[in-house]
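Q: what does this look like with adenosine-5'-diphosphate bound?
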Amino acid sequence: MAERSPRDPAGTLIVVLGPSGSGKDTIIDFARETLRGRSDVLFVRRVVTRDAAVQAEDHDTLDEAAFLAAEQAGAFAFTWKAHGLSYGLPSSMDGHLALGGIAIANGSRATLPDLRRRYPTLVPVTLAVAPDVLAARIAARGRESEAEIAARLQRAERFALDTPDLTIIDNNGAPEIAGRAFVRLIEQVSARHHAIA
Ligand SMILES: Nc1ncnc2c1ncn2[C@@H]1O[C@H](COP(=O)(O)OP(=O)(O)O)[C@@H](O)[C@H]1O
Ligand SMILES: O=P(O)(O)OC[C@H]1O[C@H](OP(=O)(O)OP(=O)(O)O)[C@H](O)[C@@H]1O
């Protein structure tokens, strides 16, 4: 993890957290479509060392060596490792936050304490999904091997996100229901910005 001094940007980072298959990308995609044209809301495009051929969220791909070089050159605002992959949120995100914008990123539960230190106004969001629904959705997504799915399900049980300011969105129903709840949260954050401005 790149160590930087904490800052208190004018904007707000909304981070979507939750086990593999819980619907992080689904609600982010729904909000991106719904809020298209809103220049104050940045949907952060992650850099991931995942094979570009693997169907996943729309991310930039680097191999490990290139990721490390980019990290050392200051290309990332925040990085972490999970599932044998490296993930980076590009430093352009900090520029957007410094201007008072809202940034939305898919993040890692394991890094929540570090992320909060670095972004004190962080708004963490998580998705609640029953374990059997989760398992079925990861399998149906067809992105991981059986061993990888088993590892992801094990990891799903390791984190209890016990933080008082956490927004929990139920995603056991239709994706639009969770998607709309997420858009409402973004609108609330946006209204808070306007009230302060
Ligand atoms: N509410 C839902 N109902 C049915 N399928 C869903 C729902 N939410 C997500 N999915 C599906 O479950 C799979 C995992 O969702 P995804 O958004 O990729 O999760 P994550 O980003 O948290 O790993 C995807 O195939 C997605 O289309
Ligand atoms: O610490 P955790 O909360 O377990 O998260 C670990 C990683 O898993 C997810 O990535 P990825 O998009 O590769 O996996 P997913 O789509 O299966 O969640 C998430 O965005 C983190 O990068």
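Residues 14-191 form a domain with the Rossmann fold fold (CATH 3.40.50.300). The first strand starts at residue 12 and ends at 17.
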